[in-house]
Design a protein that fits this description.
mainly alpha, 5 helices
Length: 111
């Protein structure tokens, strides 16, 4: 009897910036608690958008989660993302001159 071959983690293509595409990436690679948190936050954003008659809360939630889903699609990228977020929580955000501008984010990620 032979031991099963260890497979490298599955790297998915960059997801579309839609709730379903984000959920697919998280379901494939993320911890179940992350997926549950996404579902709760998305449900809350839908409810807030419905109550306010404004899609802004929903769009903001989807965009925020898109960045996390993009990191989860690649385990090494996820590790780097988590380390960066830990640094922000511990030390605060980077100085303004080291931050990406909105046009740079749009050019690089298309969102």
């Amino acid at each position: 009897m032979t031991a099963p071959q260890a497979r490298p983690p599955r790297i998915l293509p960059r997801p579309a910036c839609t709730p379903a595409a984000i959920r697919n990436v998280l379901a494939a690679n993320a911890d179940p608690r992350v997926l549950q948190r996404y579902d709760r936050e998305l449900d809350a954003a839908f409810e807030q958008a419905r109550e306010q008659g404004d899609l802004t809360p929903l769009v903001q939630t989807v965009r925020r989660w898109w960045f996390e889903a993009d990191a989860w699609r690649d385990p090494e990228a996820q590790r780097q993302f988590a380390a960066r977020m830990d640094g922000y929580r511990n030390d605060g955000p980077p100085p303004p001159e080291e931050r990406m501008t909105r046009p740079e984010i749009h050019a690089r990620f298309g969102v």
